[in-house]
Amino acid sequence: MKIKDIMSAPVFVVSPDENVARARNLMLRHKIGRLVIVENNKPIGMVTKKDIVKRLNQAEPQWRRRPIDDIPVRKVMTESLITIFPDATPRQLAELMTENNIGGLPVVNNKDEVIGIATKWDLIRYFSKLDLDMKVKDLQIDPALTVHRHHTISHIIHELQANSADRAIVLEDNDMPVGIITNSNLTFTEMRDKTGGLPQKEIKMTRKESAAGRKQNRYISEVPLVAEDIMSSPIINVNYDDLATYAAGLMIKKRINGLSVLGNGVKGILTGENIIKTILTM
């Protein structure tokens, strides 16, 4: 099987001078995680959900204060573009993704024209259709980064960056998983406000004159958003003894890149990257 047999087409593209708001909206509308940046009909870069969150979070204050419809894609895109030819194999694609820590490559012809895009989703779909007896427990599963449902967005961003992770399982007080937070959640909520701060929510509160008194003094307080405000829920789980191909198929069906793995409690997170690394061993 060749890349031309598993790649996705057509490809959604933007120019480097279009704004981040348009790029984000395209990703949301078409449920995709990356866009190819094209200039003069040639691919010059890539922008992903992760790029938008990371670059704006690290941007200098004057950029943080600008609305996202004022920030050009050029500011957040990745310029070192790696491409692949349509006659390459899925294993070669997996090698390029693993070696360069990327989740997708434009597929180009001999004229350097973009004819498709090959992503981790294409490799996961390819893997899900293989005839294998491999179990989830046979894969290299990532340890689970966990946060509490009341942790703030700023705390979550810090934990993700400190642990070089792109997702976290949200736990209830009893340590049971209730949701998951990914770059997708952060991309559509973490955008800075005009002062460069993180978004907040309003809470209406009341006070009583005395313990038995009538409620009064109603007021609104602004507090930071927390994990339960932005997490994806309910969380989707697989078990240690499930078939690996079943787990891959579930990822494709639900369009999620992280499954909580349960055994005796939360054992870890099975991601598309784990499946790509498995393809390299086959």
From TrEMBL:
InterPro entries: CBS_dom, CBS_dom_sf, Diverse_CBS-Domain. Transmembrane segments: none annotated. SMART domains: CBS. Keywords: Amino-acid biosynthesis, CBS domain, Methionine biosynthesis. Gene3D superfamilies: CBS-domain. One of its GO terms (biological process) is methionine biosynthetic process. It comes from the Archaea. The keyword Amino-acid biosynthesis applies. Residues 7-62, 77-134 form the CBS domain. This is Inosine monophosphate dehydrogenase. It comes from Candidatus Methanoperedens nitratireducens.
